[in-house]
């Protein structure tokens, strides 16, 4: 003990501990989110951060936005100029942190800058309409005549784009065309553009002709192909026979679309009948055919039937077996020569007999025949008979507009005194011109006047000629 009674101090180890409060640099708890706004509305970005004494600075595309120093960024009445990337820097005395990028997308409403222009087109050409628009990601929908929404396919393409294209236009293509433009901000409809169609048809062209003039007897069938039955060419005619209760068919393999096929034909006595066919598929026999049934035929005496064959031997229409598309009653058929014609244009079919239109039908089935070759058909019932055919001719038919008359057929030329009396078949509504030539060597034909109007029957013309003259005649049907 010490002198004063206090125990002496013992030596010990000692430490100096300095306590430093923890730093609190800013931490972002919730990043600003990207957003899409329609132009004119208010876009708001916000950030949630922790830490003492926080300050904020917003940036766009890396550039400081002056005065934008709150935890929220409000952009009123945004336009496309406001679109872009935004970030915020959060700072306090202990440090700073930068947020992830938030993108502002601004949807500008659609506006038509250039309306589609009206136009006039010839049939068979291509018409296009184009609209120029402003706005964000526009969608297009073209309409015809205000309400008919167009769909791509067939002649139509671009029905949902800025340019509408109509290929191979026809009269039904005429009308008004407008486009409805839409996006998330709304829609706008262009002014209508009018399409005017001017019908333009090439003149008829002879596609094929055969008068069955051949060297040798019998003559060669070529280019015809005998599908069934027996066919021979002699004396400038083709003659067809078949076995009992069977068919005889002779055909070409050409493919034509809008055309007429015509021929002169006659039957031996007690014939079942036959006729000509068109739009034939030579591979399976599908075709249209016009058949003449003479008096006493088991097919119906003195009738003309338009048939739609489903193969070489079976006809059917609208799911009814052996049903004709149409039929007409004929005057006396007998064993005389008659002129038969089939005309095809689109799904429309016309049948002419001795110059008169007797059937006009539109194929209402879902699969009209639109192209193909031609054929000659006959059928033997129980009595042997023959069908004779001459002067087969195929002529193109205009796709639109009036149908041209069938080729007139000179019925007879008779000498009466010092004049020739010429008779030929005609159609009402058309005009005919008689021409003559005293020689065929130079190919020159002379007009006889006046032109005569068609009557639907025979026309007679009397032409005085010198007794020593040999004269040739032809008749021209005027469109």
Concise account of the structure shown:
The chain has four domains: 27-107, Immunoglobulins (Immunoglobulin-like, Sandwich), CATH 2.60.40.10; 111-198, Immunoglobulins (Immunoglobulin-like), CATH 2.60.40.10; 206-396, Sandwich (Jelly Rolls), CATH 2.60.120; 410-478, Immunoglobulin-like. The protein contains no helices and 45 strands.
Helix-strand blueprint:
Blueprint: E1 27-30, E2 35-38, E3 43-46, E4 48-50, E5 55-60, E6 63-64, E7 72-75, E8 84-92, E9 95-98, E10 102-107, E11 111-114, E12 119-122, E13 127-130, E14 132-134, E15 139-144, E16 148-149, E17 156-157, E18 163-166, E19 175-183, E20 186-189, E21 193-198, E22 206-210, E23 225-228, E24 230-234, E25 237-241, E26 246-251, E27 259-267, E28 274-280, E29 287-293, E30 303-309, E31 316-317, E32 320-321, E33 326-329, E34 338-345, E35 348-353, E36 356-362, E37 373-380, E38 387-396, E39 410-416, E40 419-425, E41 431-437, E42 446-447, E43 452-453, E44 458-464, E45 472-478
Parallel strand pairs: 2-10, 12-21
Antiparallel strand pairs: 1-4, 3-7, 5-6, 5-8, 8-9, 8-10, 11-14, 13-18, 15-16, 15-19, 17-18, 19-20, 19-21, 22-38, 23-26, 24-25, 25-38, 26-37, 27-34, 27-38, 28-29, 28-37, 29-30, 30-33, 31-32, 34-35, 35-36, 39-40, 40-44, 41-42, 41-43, 41-45
Explain the overall architecture.
The protein has 479 residues and is mainly β. It folds into four domains: 27-107, Immunoglobulin-like, CATH 2.60.40.10; 111-198, Immunoglobulin-like; 206-396, Sandwich (Jelly Rolls); 410-478, Immunoglobulin-like. It is built from no helices and 45 strands. Strands 22, 24, 25, 27, 34, 35, 36 and 38 form an eight-stranded antiparallel β-sheet that branches. It has a seven-stranded antiparallel β-sheet with strand order 23-26-37-28-29-30-33, with no helix packed on it. Strands 2, 5, 6, 8, 9 and 10 form a six-stranded mixed β-sheet that branches. A hairpin with a 2-residue loop joins strand 5 and strand 6.
